[in-house]
Design a protein that fits this description.
143 residues, mainly alpha, 2 domains, 48% helix, elongated
Length: 143
């Protein structure tokens, strides 16, 4: 949790042989979120968030955890009283505006973990950008 901006992360698990096509699809989705989100998708996401709220308050530990963002981000004390209505008020234009502001597929650092012999050729073929090889600790290794 942060008071300032943090990293945007997204991940997927794919079969090694499909790493290149998986990356293409992944980038397609990141670019698509910057365009209009289909109303049906937005509706499903809203329902998921709204209907999941009660399960966030089942134990005393969950209740305490739910209060952390209220204190940390100086949210109003009635934040959860208005949560369902606030989620419902989110529009397709809101999602698009925020996605365009914060998601920039052209400036990503993409980390791919796998067997180099099985994935490198496919990644080079799709030419997403320069490939930098790193060891387990993130140190550059020679090609």
């Amino acid at each position: 949790m942060r008071r300032a901006a943090g990293p945007f992360t997204a991940s997927a698990e794919v079969v090694a042989a499909k790493t290149d096509s998986g990356l293409i699809e992944f980038m397609k989705e990141l670019n698509a979120i910057r365009e209009a989100v289909p109303a049906s998708e937005l509706s499903k996401a809203k329902r998921y968030m709204q209907l999941g709220l009660p399960s966030d308050f089942e134990t005393t530990q969950q209740i305490a955890q739910a209060l952390i963002p209220v204190a940390l981000y100086s949210l109003p004390l009635d934040y959860y009283n208005n949560y369902v209505q606030n989620v419902e008020a989110v529009t397709q234009a809101d999602v698009q505006r925020v996605a365009r502001q914060y998601i920039n597929p052209g400036s990503l650092a993409i980390v791919i973990v796998g067997d180099r012999k099985n994935i490198e050729q496919g990644l080079k073929a799709i030419n997403v950008g320069p490939i930098s090889l790193r060891d387990f600790f993130g140190k550059p290794i020679s090609q």
